[in-house]
Structure formats: structure tokens, C-alpha cells
Automatic annotation (TrEMBL):
Name the record gives this protein: SpoVT-AbrB domain-containing protein
Length: 88
């Protein structure tokens, strides 16, 4: 399927696509293209469905806290790498 953006950069998805996959999508930029991935109305339930019992009885709040810590760590590491690159 091919779609073009309008003058404001919007892409309109056909009704049958929205009915099948929903109305929320994550845009992922890859080296050679972009991809749209549907986002579940309940992302945690979607994650559990995708990975089965890999998280066992881990609560959503714990998963969120772990994700926030990982993101903070990545941001700090990236900032440090940029700082080091600027000194060279």
C-alpha cells in the first residue's frame, strides 16, 4: 500500500487498516525507511501477550520504573559520549 502525506505531513490510514490494527501507532525510524507499529490500548497487556510469562508476576509499576531507569542511564551515557567527543 502506498500513501502520500498532505501539506501538513499527515498520512491517512484506510478504515480497514484502522479497524484491524487500531488508531495508535509508534513510528520507528530505521536506516533505510520508517515503519508504523500498532500500539495496544493497554500496552502492558499487549506486552504480556507478546512475551508470554517472561515477566512472571512483575507489576506494571515495576516494569515502568525499570524502563525509566534504563532510559535515564542511556541518556546519561549518550551525554557523556557527546561531551567526550567535544573535548577531542
Amino acid at each position: 500500500m502506498s500513501k502520500s502525506t498532505d501539506e501538513r505531513g499527515r498520512i491517512y490510514l484506510p478504515k480497514d487498516v484502522r479497524e484491524k490494527f487500531g488508531n495508535q501507532y509508534r513510528i520507528v525510524e530505521l536506516p533505510s525507511h520508517v515503519a508504523l507499529f500498532p500500539v495496544d490500548e493497554d500496552p502492558v497487556a499487549g506486552l504480556r501477550a507478546a512475551v508470554g510469562d517472561a515477566f512472571g508476576d512483575t507489576k506494571a509499576a515495576d516494569l515502568k520504573a525499570d524502563a525509566r531507569e534504563a532510559i535515564s542511564r542511556e541518556v546519561r551515557e549518550e551525554a557523556e559520549a557527546r561531551s567526550q567527543a567535544g573535548k577531542e
